[in-house]
């Protein structure tokens, strides 16, 4: 659909984006505020950023968060890709309905329920709460997001390419690794990134499943936010926003060029 | 197919299947079990009604003596009933507001020139990657008494005394609409994007007014997107914790917050579990609806 772009359309787009971005922009601006009073502008300063790097508790939490996010995103990507392959390739197996349900339900499940239920699982199997329980919890809910992202790419993949490889003597597993995986790789990568940011962001599930010594950055930010708005938190948030935005923009440019290249290759393969 | 590859293809299903059974389904069983248990102070603070070590006969014996006293307690105490009702009300109203803002945005995006559409799409997705907590936090500085919004309105001369927005339900509505807007915009945009503009032209040619053509063609074709968007906003909003906790006041009752308080402040695991079970029962219809729509969309993709 692409007709005239009326004034009404332009206005609603401009207002919509202003609404989406203004709060974040204000937060970033006020992280450079000289004054401790967040809402009173007193001149430009980067002192709150300096302050951050002297805050050991915050740095520790950031390190825990990055490790949890890295491990959980990686495992979730492997499991989520397997789940996506199962959903797309195996249309009939015992318990498929249950499986489909378990993949889609966590996408909309309220976090308090997921968090509570996982905590109760860890308690009842006597698993010491801490770094690993948070990681396991994050793997579980992010693998479903990876599965959906990879699935949407996999359904449009022409399976005859993989069958051709098998006809030429390639075993199924190798055919998958050599033909299918490179094609769905952009989706797998964006699935990994989604899992990574989901883990980086999560407060509720981490609060339920964490234990002593495994305070994540969102938990740390949350406990400080409850005491009020401070320029240090604005500075932490600004750094996080910066890292994520740069990562997403670079990744989307990379996957776009790859995607275009892949499509060209696929077409070329058919043309021959 | 050789035996080895048969085993491999079984493993493809089995690994994620077993993982989800253990980390997703089993935990729910445990929540249900604890919801039916008696509270006992200690760690873990509950007396299980039955455990797997009893064997099946043991479970049957205990099943006959199961008590629903935690549920009776929830029904008996108006705090919980009110929490559920007010969560549903807040989620419903916020969903309608999100639709009111999200639809024109998605519509405007779908009609934008081809060259800028990918950028617009990217701009809608980008906030989704930014931390939820941070986006909610950003509103505290804007909405509070001496915050930026009040400063701005005072400067404009629209108001004489600062408005009290933070710690009210209004702030919760703003927070939910803001946080979930991309979830509403994306499905509507993808429904409108696929639409054939010549259908609207045909309606106009056949004598429809512009508004008539919009209602009869565009709005009808956007329905699946609107439904998906509404469910994606409504379901998580009902169980929302961060937004009512940070932006709402002590008068803001939401079930996610009540569950959190029961669990972390009152250490009452059995009541927290019972709340979770009822919340799940309330949400099961929209969740199943959403799943079917998802599965159908995935099949249609083939």
From TrEMBL, chain A:
Pfam families on file: BPD_transp_1 (PF00528)
Main localization (coarse): membrane
SUPFAM superfamilies per the UniProt record, alphabetical: MetI-like
Alphabetized InterPro entries for the sequence: Bact_Polyamine_Transport (IPR051789), MetI-like (IPR000515), MetI-like_sf (IPR035906)
Record family assignment: Belongs to the binding-protein-dependent transport system permease family. CysTW subfamily.
The organism of origin for this protein: Hoeflea olei
Compartments it resides in: Cell membrane
Name used for this protein in its record: Spermidine/putrescine ABC transporter permease
Gene3D superfamilies xref list: MetI-like (1.10.3720.10)
Gene Ontology CC annotation, any one: plasma membrane
Membrane topology type: Multi-pass membrane protein
Gene Ontology biological-process annotations: transmembrane transport
Transmembrane segments: 7-32, 68-90, 102-125, 131-150, 179-200, 233-254
UniProt keyword annotations, A-Z: Cell membrane, Membrane, Transmembrane, Transmembrane helix, Transport
ABC transmembrane type-1 domain sequence ranges: 62-254
UniProtKB/TrEMBL annotation, chain B:
Transmembrane segments: 12-36, 88-108, 120-140, 171-192, 213-238, 269-290
UniProt keyword annotations, A-Z: Cell membrane, Membrane, Transmembrane, Transmembrane helix, Transport
UniProt membrane topology term: Multi-pass membrane protein
Record domain ABC transmembrane type-1: where: 84-290
Pfam family membership, one: BPD_transp_1
Subcellular location per the Swiss-Prot or TrEMBL entry: Cell membrane
SUPFAM superfamilies, per the entry: MetI-like (SSF161098)
Record-given protein name: Putrescine/spermidine ABC transporter permease
